[in-house]
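Re-run requested by the PI after the first attempt was lost when the workstation crashed. Everything re-entered from the original request form. Ligand of interest: iron/sulfur cluster.
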Amino acid sequence: MATKFEPLSIATKEDFKLGAPVKWCAGCGGHSVLSSVINVLPETGAPKENIVFVSGIGCSSRFPYYINTYGFHSMHGRAMAIASGIKAANPSLSVWIVTGDGDSMAIGGNHFIHIIRRNINVNILLFNNKIYGLTKGQYSPTTPKGSITKTSPEGTIENAFKPGELTMGAQGTFYARTVDSDPKMMREVFAAAAAHKGTSVVEILQNCVIFANQVHKEITGKDVRKDNQIYLKHGEPMIFGKERNRGLMMKCSKMEAVTIGENGITEDDLIVHNAYDVDDTNHYRLVRMELPEFPVAMGVIRAVDSTVFESELYNQVQKAKKESKIKNMDDLMHSGNVFESKG
Amino acid sequence: MAKKNSVIELDEVVVKFAGDSGDGMQLTGDQFSDTSAFIGNDLSTFPDYPSEIRAPQGTVAGVSGFQVHIGHKEVSTPGDQADVLVAMNPAALKANMKWVKDGATIIIDIDNFDNKHYKKAGYVEDPLHDNSLEGYNVVKAPITMLSRNVATSAGLDNKTADKTKNQFVAGLLYWLFNRDIKIGEDFLKQKFMSKPALVKANIAVLHEGYNYAETIEALSTTFHVDPVKGKKGLFRTITGNQATAWGLLAAAEKAGLELYLGSYPITPATEILQEIVKHKHLGAVAFQAEDEIAGISSAIGASFAGKLAATSTSGPGLALKGEAIGLAVMTELPLVIVNVQRGGPSTGLPTKTEQADLLQALYGRNGESPCIVIAASTPANCFNYAFEAAKLSLEHMTPVILLTDSFLANGSELWKIPKMKEMPAIVPPRVEDNAKDFYPYHRDPKRLNRYWAVPGQPGLRHRIGGLEKGDVTGEVSHDPMNHQIMVEHRECKVQKVAEFIPEQEVTGPESGDLLVVGWGGSYGALISAVTDLRDEGKSISLTQFNYINPLPGNTEEVFSRFKKILVCELNMGQFASYLRSKHPRFEYLQYNKIQGLPLFISELKIKFNEVLESI
Ligand code: SF4
C-alpha cells in the first residue's frame, strides 16, 4: 500500500472531530462532555495516534464512535479489562475509558475495583445519570433509594453506591467529580485526570433527559448550584456559596458546613483542601457529603502518587531481559535437562 | 551376596510410584524418568495428584502417584497397568491394586503396614495375610527404618531424615533396572544444589536402597530396557502445559511479536500461566486477571494493541469467556484461547480428564460465531498445535480455540527439541503507517482476513467494536443485507483455513475394514491399540483429528475408503455428532467413555475386535 505523510504534529481539537452524526438524544448531557473532552485532548500533549478510547455498553459507551481516535466499543462492563490489556501491551498509549453507572458499578463492578487497585494509568470518565438509559429506564446501582423506575414501580429498596467511595475502597489514587453543565470545570478536571499517573476516576453527573431528567437538578440547577456545590481546589480553603461566605470546617473531628462571619468564624478556620494527602479520611468525608446538610463536592478530591502497574511490569521485563542468559527460544529449549540420543 | 543372576530384557515397562503427598513420589518419578531419558529410553509419564490439597495422611484420598512408562520401542501412553508398583503405605496399595498387572512386582514399605495404617486406609483384613497379594512378587522392605538410620547418621534430624525415603525407593529401582547410580547422584546434586548436607544424606540413602536390593532374594531378577533405536538428536521431557506455553512463546518469536497472556488460575490450566510468567526475559507478559472474563478481555485489548494475545482456561472458564470470544470474532482480532479440558459439567472433576468441551468450543456462543478449533494429541505436540493456533489466528485474523486436556496437560513425554529456524514463518497482515485508503474491514481475498492496524500507528485511527460492522468501512451498520454479507464473510474466512492446513492422514493401510477415528488427546491409547491389532493381522487403521473446524479437505475421501468407521472419544459422542452434521453420508459407530479416565488400550482392543467380527 502506498503511504502518505501524516506529521506527528501537536493535535488540535479539529483533529478529534469525526463528522459522523452523534446519536445521543437532543439535550443529553453526553454532548457537552464530548465537546469538553475534544477541547482538552490537545492540551494533554499526547500524539493523536497514541490516544485510545475504550468503552463498554450503554448510552455513554457510544462515545468512541463520536471522536476521531483509535476506539474500541466493547462488551457490557468489560471496558476496564480491555483497557488494562491495552495498557499492559503498550504503556505509551493514552487510554481513556468511557463508562456509565450501570456499566461500571453493576456488571463491570469487579473490573472497576481491580483496575483501580492495580493503578493502571488510564482515565475513566464515569457518566453517572443514575439510570439505565439504553435499555430505557431501569434503576442502576447509583439510583437514589426509593426512586420509582420501570423495575422499581414501588420505589427501589437498594442502597445506592457512591462511585467515589468505591474508588477509595479500592485504594484509588485519583477521584474527581464534575457536572455535564459546567464546561470549564470539566476541562480543568479532565486535564488533571490526564496528567495523573495512575487510574483517574472522574464521575460526571450527567443528565439523561429521557429517563431521569433533572435527577441532579438540586446540584446543577443554575439558581442553586453555587450554594449546593463546592468546587475544591488543592491548597485552597473550602469555600462555597453564591456569596462565597460559606465554608467547611472541622468541629470535634466532624466536618461541618459553616457561615463565615457567624459565631466568629473566619476564613482561617476553614479546612484547606489537600488532594495529595495519602490518608483518605478527609477525601471520604468530602465524597460522602450530601444535600441539604452539605454542598456536593466537586473537582479533584483525591490525587496521590503510587506505583503504576504497567511501569512496574516493564521494569521487571527489562530487568529479566538484562539478566537472563536465555535470549531466545532456541536458548530456552536447550536449557536445563537435555539428553542427547545417538540412536 | 551380589547375585544378579538373571537379567530379563524388556521392550517396555510401567512403574507406578504411590504414597502420601509428603513421600516425594513425584520427585522419585521425575528422577526415574530423567534417568531413563538419559540412557535413551522413550517414555511417557502421568502424575496422579490427590483431588484434595490436604487430605488426611494415610488415607486413600491422600494418595499421590506418578506413573512412568519407559520403552525400547516408541511409547505412546503412560500405560494401562503397572509392572512395578511402589506402595509407601496401605492406602497407596489399596488405591492402586486395580492398576497393577497380574504377577507384577509390588514394593511396599513394611514399616507402615500396621493396624493403625490399615484402619486409615479402610482395610478390614490385613492385606499381607488375606491372600489378596497371591501371584504377585511382593518385596517387603523396611524403607522408613533403613532410610532414617542412614540419614540420621549422615547428620539429618528425624523429620528431615524421613524425607529421604524416596531415595531408598530410587536406589531399589536403579538396581532393579540396572541403572547407573551415578545418574541418580547427579540428579540429587542438581536438585539440592545449595544444600550440601541434604545431597550427602540423600546420596547415602540412595546407596542404601541400591545395596538392600542387591541382597534380597525377592529381587534376584533384574530388568533391562534398551535405548530406542533410530531416535537421534537432542531430547528433553516436557508436559503438555509446558509445551503449550512454549509453543505460544515460539510463535511470538517467529511472528516478531511479544506474547501477552491474560488468564485466571484454574485447574488444570494454571501451569500455562505459571510458565509464561517465568519468561519476561523473552518479552512475554502474563497478566493474572481478576476473573476469567477479565483474562480474555485484557487479551483482546492486548491484541488490539498489537501483541500476540492468548488466554488459557478450562471448561468452566471457557463458558465465562463466551461473550468475549464473540467480540474477538466480530472485531476480527487474532486471539488464542487454550482450553485444557477437564471433567464437567459445572465444577465436575477438576483434576480428571475428559473431551466434553468440543461442542462448547464449536458452538458455545451467541449468534453465528465461528472459531477455528484445533486440538493437540500428545503432551509434546501441544507445542506444535499452540504454535499453529497462533499462526492461524494471526494470519487469518480470527480467534482460534486450542483444545488440550488434563491428561495431556499433566502428562509428559520425551520431546525432540525443534530448531526455531525450521519452524514455519508467521506473517501477520499488519498495515503500514499512513497507509492510503485504509479501511478497517477491507479484506485480503486469499484468506478473507482484514488487516491489523494498531494504536500508535500514524494515519490509521479507526474504531472497532461489538456492533455489526459495515463491510469494508467497518462503521456500525444495522443494514439487513450487510449483516448477511458479514456473517458469511466470517464463516467463509474460517472455512477457507482448510486450504492452509495439512490433509488428514491415516496411520496404517489407506483402506480396509475398520477406520478408528479419534481426535485430540486420545491418540496414545488409540494408536497403541490399533497397532497391536494390526500386528495380529487385522484390517484396521487410525485417523486422529487435530483440525476440527474446519475439518481437513480430504476428510470425506478418507472415510469413504473403509467399511466401518468407529469414533472413540471421552464424552457422549460429540465429535461423532459433529461428523454426522458435516459428512452425513457415513455411518459412525461410537465408543464413548466418561469416567474422568483416559482411554485404555485393553478396553479399546476388545471394542475393535467386536466391531471387526461384525464385518
Ligand atoms: S437515553 Fe438518556 S443517557 Fe441515553 S442518550 Fe438519551 S438522554 Fe442521553
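Saved to the shared folder this time. The domain at 13-215+307-316 of chain A is CATH 3.40.50.970 (Rossmann fold).
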